[in-house]
Design goal:
The two termini are about 35 Å apart. The protein is globular. It folds into 3 domains: about 130 residues, no CATH class; about 80 residues, no CATH class; about 160 residues, no CATH class. Helix content is about 70%, strand content about 0%. It contains 18 helices and no strands. The chain has about 400 residues and is mainly α.
């Protein structure tokens, strides 16, 4: 249980985070800054006009449903662009609270306060809370999913809690389908935890899988009715795979597409993109390996990749935030005790990295795992401080 003083610290961090985020929101103009924002707004408009939850007639399952539904709910309540940004600021500030409780559960309260405080002032979290993009909502859903699974492996936790853990992962998957691909790793984490009898672990896995499937089923049924195909995520995967690996790709956004592919029916288009990409990789495997390396560097770049955010100010902010965390994060991975919770965090970071090395890499896609980067960086920093104190003491 938290002491009264600890609660004060947690809520002080929350207030600090909220003030910084709302301040950034009011700095922004009431307009869209990214193409993805316009697409999500188009989905909201189509949905609220009765045309369906889709980008266009040829893109009925191209985007995941949760974020546009989230925006539509706020618009229905009377919120405009600024109102939505303020709600996202609250969610982003709450992420700092979840980071505190997750860090405290895996490590200790000292590290939890440090990680939560860094998260409250972390520029990338503040930045993405101001735009109508999936990042902020996805971050808190990933954090809640990870917290739920870390709690699930505790012996005193009922296997029925697995339904909640699986449901949280399913909801995160409806925000960004990446999470659906990682769900088997979550189940493997529970199965290999060895904290209980195998029978109990299997029950927890079963109930987690049940919760996951229950959340995804309505979207799967909707997609089968609308485009006549089993689509648990979206029909965007093939296009993104092509975009990250085509002859002109450098690992980031690349708007070169084969002529006529977008005219193919949506149910078949995704498969065509995958087939064309694999054919190109077979023709030039060396370039594919080269692009994998470039995407790794893009994903973990200390400075922004996008030209519009390559100015000195953006570089300075990135270097003095993520750049300072990176060496302590690398140290943290090396020295952290390899218990179940720590391996889980590191595993998620590795999986996200590998996924975006195969598909499309950007700093934006790294933001979802940066809470775990911060947590492990804090561990690395505190470990180093402890070693230096021990070295000086004799």
């Amino acid at each position: 249980m938290l002491t009264k003083n600890s609660w004060k610290i947690v809520w002080s961090i929350f207030v600090l985070a909220l003030i910084l985020r709302i301040g950034f929101v009011f700095y922004l103009q009431e307009r869209f800054y990214f193409d993805d924002e316009r697409e999500y707004w188009k989905m909201v408009d189509n949905f609220m006009s009765g045309r369906g939850l889709m980008v266009a007639e040829t893109l009925k399952a191209y985007r995941p449903p949760l974020y546009p539904l989230f925006i539509a709910m706020l618009v229905k309540a009377g919120a405009g662009i600024t109102g939505i940004r303020i709600v996202q600021s609250i969610i982003s500030a709450l992420c700092c609270v979840v980071i505190f409780f997750l860090s405290r559960k895996i490590f200790n309260e000292k590290l939890a306060i440090m990680a939560s405080l860094i998260s409250s002032v972390y520029p990338f979290f503040i930045f993405y809370s101001g735009f109508l993009l999936t990042e902020t909502l996805f971050i808190i859903l990933v954090l809640l999913s990870v917290y739920a699974f870390v709690k699930l492996i505790e012996p005193e936790v009922s296997f029925y809690y697995g339904i909640f853990a699986g449901a949280m992962s399913g909801i995160a998957g409806l925000c960004r389908p990446t999470m659906e691909l990682f769900f088997p790793f979550f189940l493997l984490f529970v199965l290999c935890s060895k904290s209980e009898l195998l029978r109990t672990r299997l029950k927890k896995v079963f109930f987690a899988f049940t919760g996951f499937v229950l959340i995804l089923t309505p979207w799967i049924i909707r997609n089968y009715i609308v485009i006549g195909k089993f689509v648990p995520g979206t029909t965007m995967g093939g296009a993104v795979f092509w975009e990250g690996n085509n002859p002109y790709s450098e690992g980031g956004p690349c708007r070169y597409f084969p002529e006529g592919v977008w005219q193919i029916d949506e149910a078949q288009r995704d498969g065509v993109f995958y087939r064309l990409t694999f054919e190109y990789i077979k023709k030039d495997p060396r370039r594919f390996i080269h692009i994998l390396g470039k995407k790794f560097l893009r994903f973990w770049n200390v400075v922004p990749n996008a030209v519009e955010y390559s100015g000195n100010l953006y570089r300075f902010i990135s270097v003095t935030s993520f750049g300072l965390l990176l060496p302590f994060f690398a140290l943290g991975i090396l020295v952290v005790p390899y218990n179940a919770g720590n391996v889980f965090l590191i595993g998620i970071i590795i999986l996200f990295t590998l996924f975006h090395m195969l598909f499309l890499a950007s700093i934006r896609y790294r933001v979802a795992i940066e809470p775990f980067v911060i947590i492990l960086a804090c561990y690395g920093f505190l470990w180093l401080v402890k070693q230096l104190k021990g070295f000086k003491r004799p």
